[in-house]
Amino acid sequence: MKRLSDIGVGHTVVIKSFENNDIFLKLMEMGCVPGEKVRVEQKAPLGDPIAISVSGYNLSLRLDEARNIFVEEVS
């Protein structure tokens, strides 16, 4: 599995799990739940933050938040 922070712009992935349970509730409230498809839309020039599309809306995540999300590429 890869981390969401390592996924390139334009790629779609599926959320599999979270590394840090402290951030789990916050991410779930934003629509980042296991099984949900996520598309990386943009990355800031220095890589932080990143913009993703999830559950029909755009969301900005800090890189440290994205590192806690394990994903798999959509086949």
From TrEMBL:
Keywords: Iron. InterPro entries: Fe-transptr_FeoA-like, FeoA, FeoA_core_dom, Transcriptional_repressor_C. The lineage of its organism: Bacteria, Pseudomonadati, Bacteroidota, Chitinophagia, Chitinophagales. SUPFAM superfamilies: C-terminal domain of transcriptional repressors (SSF50037). Pfam families: FeoA (PF04023). Residues 2-73 form the Ferrous iron transporter FeoA-like domain. Transmembrane segments: none annotated. SMART domains: FeoA. This is Iron transporter. It comes from Flavihumibacter stibioxidans. The keyword Acetylation does not apply.
